[in-house]
Amino acid sequence: MEISSKENTHFFSNNTILPVDRSSFKSESSSSKEKQSCCGGIKIFLGALSFVYFAKALSGSYLKSTITQIERRFDITSSLVGVIDGSFEIGNLLIIILVSYFGAKLHRPRIIGAGCLIMSAGTFLIAMPQFFMGRYRYERFPSTINSTVNISPCLQDKSQTPLSALEKPQAKINAGCEKEAGSSMWIYVLLGNLLRGIGETPIQPLGITYIDDYAVEENAALYIGCVQTVAIIGPIFGFLLGSLCAKLYVDIGFVDLDSVTISPKDVQWVGAWWLGYLIAGMISVLAGIPFWFLPKHLPKPESRKDSSTSSEQSKFITEESKDQRTSYQQQAKLAEMAKDFLPSLKSLFGNPVYILYLCATIIQFNSLIGMVTYKPKYIEQQYGQTSSKTNFVIGLINIPAVAFGIFSGGLIMKKFRIGVLGAAKLSLGSSFFGYLLLLSLFAMGCENSDVAGLTVSYHGTKPMADYEQALFSECNSGCSCSKNDWDPICGENGVTYVSACLAGCQASNGSGKNTVFFNCSCVGTLESSQSSSAVVGPCQKGNECPKMFLYFLVISVITSYTLSVGGTPGYILLLRCIKPHLKSFALGIYTLAIRVLAGIPAPVYFGVAIDTTCLKWGSKRCGGRGACRLYDSSALRYVYLGLTLVLGTVSIFFSVAVLWVLRKRSSPQDETLSANGERGACGTKSRKDIFVNSDQLIQSTYWPEKETRL
Question: Which residue ranges does UniProt annotate as crossing the membrane (predicted)?
C-alpha cells in the first residue's frame, strides 16, 4: 500500500513527493502549476498539430495540381496517373490498423513526428526523378531550336538534310533508348506517394485522441474544429503553389530559357512540378520537429480526472495505471472482444440505414474523387487554359466554396435544430441540386480545335477515314513526314497542323518561338487562300470559349458549395442511427470502405475512360505510346461529366432509400420530437446522448483526404 501511495503521489505531483505537514499549501501551488502546464502543453500540441494538418493538406493538393505535369514529364497515360494518385490510399491502408491499435499505447507525439519525417521523405522521393532523368526533350523541328542550318520542313530534297535530322546512327539511338528507360522513373513517384500515405496515417487518429484525452472537456470540440479549419486552408496554398510552379519551365536553372521554343499554352509544356514537392517536403520536416519535444502524457485537467464522461481511451489509460491488470485478464478481455467482433459486425450490417447510407456515400465519393482528380486536365483540354491558370482558379475559387458549404451545413443544422429526418432530407437535397447543376455543364463546352487530319480534313470537312491515316493528304504527299510527330503550327487560315512537314511547308525563317514557315502547300489549299505561312504553336480555341469558361467557373463554384452543404448532415445521420457502443467501429468501417472502394479505384477507371477520348498520342523515342497530345473535346466532356453524373444519380437513389427507411421507422410524433432534439427516427435518445460526443461529431465532418477532394 505504501508503494502504491507513493507511486500515485509521484504521478499526480509531477515528480515531487510532498511533506505531510505542508501538503495543504503545496497542493494549491501544484494544482495551479498543473493547470498552467496542462493549458500550455495542449495549446502547443494544438499549434503543432494544426501545422501538420496544413502540411499534409498542402502536399496532397499539390499532387492533384501536378497530375497533368507528371503525365507529360514521364510520357504516361491518364490511367497510370490514376494508379499513382491512388497509391496514397494504399499506403494509408497498409498500416492504419497497426497505428490505430499500437499507437495509443506508445509515445503518440513522437509517432506523429516520425510520420511527418516519412511523409517528407515520400514527398522528396517524388521530386527525385527530375535530377536523374536528364533534361526534358519535347518534339520540335530542328530549325526552331536556334539551328544555324536552314532545313526545309517538307524535306523533299533529302540531300539538303543533315544526317542527324533524318537518320541517327544506331549507337546514338541505342544510347538514347537506354536514357529513355528513365521514363520508368514514374515508379519513384508512385513509391513516394505510397510513403506519403504511410507517413500521414498516424496524424489524424493519434493527434485527435491526444487532444481529446488532455484538453478540458468543453474545449475539445473547439480545438478539433480549429485543426480541421486549418486543414481546409492547406489546399488553397497547395493549388496556388501548383499555379506558381506551372509557370516556371521544368528545367529552370539548368537550361537557357531563351532556347525554350514552347510556351505554357503548349500541350507539351511541363512546369517546374518538382520544385513544389521540395517546398512541401521541407514544410513537412518543419512540422514534425515540435512533436519530438512534447511529452508522452500531459497532466489531466481537474475536471477530467474523475469524470465519467471522459473518452474511452482516457478511461483505458487510467484504469491500466490504477489496476495494473494481469496478463491473464488482458487475454480474457481480448478473447471477449474477438468473440464480440462478428456479432457487432452483424449488428452493424443488419442496420439498413447504415448500409444504404454507406452505399450512397461510396458511390458519391467515386464520382467526386474522379471528378476532382481530373478537373485540372478537363479545364486545360476543354477550355484551352494553362496549368497555371487552372490551378489558380481551383485554389482561389473552388476550395473556399467547399469550405463555406461545409460550414453552412453545420450552421443550418444548429440554427434550425434539424433532427435525423431533416438531416437525411438536407443531405439528399444537397446532392440532388448539386448534380442537377452539374448537368448544365454539358452545354458549356468548347468545340474541337480545327486540327488538319484529326478534327477536320485538309479540305475543311470532317474526316471520315481513320484519324491516323487522315494525317496524310495530296498536299503533303511529296514530303517525308512521320505521323508520330507532334510539333503543331498555326496556319494563317486558323487551322492547326500536326507538324510543319505535314503542312507541306517548304521554307522557314527565324528561330525559336519566332520561327515562321512559308510556302506551306496544305495551308494554301484550305479556303483557296493564297497565304501559305504558319507560325510555331497551335491556334487558339474559338472566340466563344473564354465566355464558356467563365460560365463554367460560376456553375462549378455553385455546384461545389451545394454538394458540400450536405456533408455535415450526412455524417450526423450516420452517427445518430448507430448504437453508441458501435460508433467507433462503424466510423472505422466507413473510412475503410471509402478508401478501398472509392479512393483507390476511382482515379484509375476515370483515367481509363478519359484515355478513350484521345485523338493523337505522343510517341516515345524508342517506340511505344506516350502521353496524349490532343483530346476530342466533345467526347471528353461527355465521358468526364457523364461518368460523374451517372455515379451521382445512383448515389441519389440510395439516399432516397435511406429517407424511405427512416420515414417508415418513424411516426409523425417522432419527427416533431426529433426537431426538438428529444427523439430521433432511429430510436429514442436524450439530447445529452445525441450531443455527448460533440468533439467526435466535429471530427466526423472530416473525411479521408477531404482537403483534396474539392
Answer: 40-59, 80-104, 110-132, 220-250, 270-294, 354-372, 392-412, 424-444, 548-575, 587-610, 639-662
